[in-house]
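Quarterly update, task 2.4: coenzyme A-bound model.
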Amino acid sequence: MALIFSVLDGRRHHRGDFTCGVAALDDYLRQRAGQHQRDGIATTHVLIDDVQPARILGYCSLSAAQLCLRELRAEDRKRLPAYPVPAIRVGRLAVSKSEKGKGYGLLLLGHAVNLALSVRQTLGVRVLVVDAKDAQVAAFYEGFGFRRTATAALSLYLPV
Ligand SMILES: CC(C)(COP(=O)(O)OP(=O)(O)OC[C@H]1O[C@@H](n2cnc3c(N)ncnc32)[C@H](O)[C@@H]1OP(=O)(O)O)[C@@H](O)C(=O)NCCC(=O)NCCS
């Protein structure tokens, strides 16, 4: 079985079957992700496999963002110009309930980093940013290398 990342396509991916345990994240995928993609608000990337390519194992949605310079730790601010730091926001990230604990959450974050590095060939991107919904999820992001911002405990960033 091969794992594949793909941009969400409502004709190919079964959004209605996806359940991660957080209703707001299920509803987002089912009801708003497609519209946000068409409107240029967020692009959703799904993780699927080649055996059942319609089944969404996990997803993340990404948007252009910025972070105030003062949110970065002093060591991450070095040599940066005195204006907002260009960023990509991981607006939502979720893994199907039945697939948790297999490393798919980390794979999705890795994919977001790869996309940021790819975007950086044409557009400046310094950090990925994310707002964790609680301290436990913040710990998940910290496990990947995200750092807490200076002002909000549940807002984190990852230099890329
Ligand atoms: C959080 C979530 C995306 C993690 O996905 P996952 O595929 O189960 O995570 P992984 O298997 O990649 O786990 C990677 C590591 O993070 C840890 N981890 C997983 N979920 C965690 C959580 N909720 N809190 C803290 N650590 C967590 C794992 O123990 C693992 O650590 P290890 O490598 O030391 O064993 C998933 O549980 C989920 O979809 N939760 C519901 C939605 C949600 O809360 N999304 C975040 C929105 S802010």
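Highlight for this quarter: The domain at 3-159 is CATH 3.40.630.30 (Aminopeptidase).
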